[in-house]
Amino acid sequence: MSATAHRRGARLAGTRLTVGPISAERHLEFVQAQRSVSFLQTPAWGRVKTEWRSESLGWYDGRRLVGAGLVLYRPVPRLDRLTLAYLPEGPVIDWAGEIDAFLGPLADYLKARGAFAIRLGPPVRTHVWGAARVKEGIADPDIARLTDLPGGEADPVGARVTGRLAEAGWLPQSPLDGFGVGHPQFKYEIPLAGRSEGEVLSGMNQLWRRNIKKAAKEGVEVTVGEDLQGFHDLYVHTAERDRFTPRPLRYFETMYAALRAEDPERIRLYLAHHRGDLVAATLLIRVGAHACYAYGASSTHKREVRGSNACQWAMIRDALAGGCDVYDLRGITPTLDAGDPHVGLIQFKAGTGGQAVRYAGEWDLPLRPMVYRVFDLYMKRRRR
After folding, report:
1. Are 57 and 7 in contact (CB under 8 A)?
2. What's the whole-number mean pLDDT along residues 212-228?
3. Cα 289 to Cα 36: distance, rounded to the nearest angstrom
């Protein structure tokens, strides 16, 4: 559906919202008033993504701010200064309400400023599977994917959002394996609201509890510190072992500085030492009641002392103590096939108890269809 059709949707909803730039201070004030927001939708994240131009936008109902979003603009080669406008895990609006009233004005605003397409990731769930159900699926040779698993709890808000986006001409971008060029559609989360530390621990499987206990018995000490160089050295080692491309130290320095400048408690670096040796390190990012495990690294040497489990347990305990509703272990692939190498990731995270969650995923709205087709072809060629 075109931007004109979106305007009709906004009028039919009976709500006239306007969209315009807001200051980082006003944006942060709105974020802090919410119970939970993705760190990717904080003003500081725009200062982390230095390869993108960023802008804070606000939705107004009269003079009242009713929504906010961080937009990242990225020019695409050979597209005559046109940009892709990206709102990762956002925007922060009332997704349970009439979304046309929000997305119509957004499309008009961004098209007028040279965007050829919008990409966004609604922070709404569509399905949830508990750890016991995930375990059953892995053991069942007839179940290959989470989406094949019976008994998953469906979320009516997520179903409504994805249905409305599809009707309005938005195009889903999430691939079958759950990982694409953007952020993962499938995640693993531990609910914390209303639970005690003992209840969370007892919800973990025997292996996780044993590893946490073993780390304590071996004398692993977890502290919160600022040794980014030590973290990065361990992270590069982990990348070599697990065969992924590491980010440079400068990226983490920028992220740490930007997020801490916005809120001293926004990001924490956890360091696990055993007899003077750094054996694991993790980064925790928190916005409101949402605590997120962002990055982790571990040493191949002394893996038997279970420094990674010690770091995770320290972060979970701090999230509980801080009144968080959820501890987010971030992305998983939806595979439950025991022969798939990716299944180990969901097995590891399912050991914490918690639940596998499918989100709405990322969606594109072409604002200039011909330009978007060129962009889409360019991206498909890059992925080959």
Report:
1. no
2. 98
3. 5
**Spatial separation of the C-alpha atoms in residues 40 and 43, rounded to whole Å:** 8
Class of residue 118 by CB neighbours under 10 A (exposed 0-12, middle 13-18, buried 19+) = buried
Going along the chain from its start, the domains and CATH numbers come out as 3-121+362-383 (3.40.630.30), 126-154+176-359 (3.40.630.30)
Q: What is the pTM of this model?
A: 0.91
Mean pLDDT, residues 350-354: 96
10 Å Cβ neighbour count for 236?
A: 15
Q: Spell out the residues 6+ positions from residue 185 whose beta carbon is closer than 8 angstroms to its own.
A: 174, 178, 358, 359, 360, 361, 362
Q: Which of 221, 246, 223, 224 is nearest to 235 (CA)?
A: 246
Identify which of 68, 335, 15 has the alpha carbon closest to the alpha carbon of residue 178: 335
**Burial class, 227, CB count within 10 angstroms (exposed 0-12 / middle 13-18 / buried 19+):** middle
Q: Residue 332: which of 351, 354, 347 has the closest Cα?
A: 347
- Please calculate the CA angle 95-100-105 and round it to the nearest 5 degrees: 110
Q: Tokens 């997120």 belong to which residue?
A: 292
* Half-sphere exposure for 144 (CA within 13 Å, toward CB): 3
Provide the edge-to-edge strand list for the sheet that holds 363-366. Answer: 18-21, 53-61, 64-75, 83-87, 115-120, 363-366, 171-172
Please name every residue paired with 35 in a beta bridge, in sequence order, or none if there are none: none
Q: What is the pLDDT of residues 201-212, one digit of tens each?
A: 999 999 999 999
- Whether residue 71 contacts residue 86, with contact meaning beta carbons closer than 8 Å, is answered with yes
Please tell me the number of Cα atoms within 13 Å of 215 on its side-chain side. Answer: 22
AA letter at 235: Y
Which tens digit of pLDDT belongs to each residue from 92-101?
999 999 999 9
DSSP label at residue 147: G
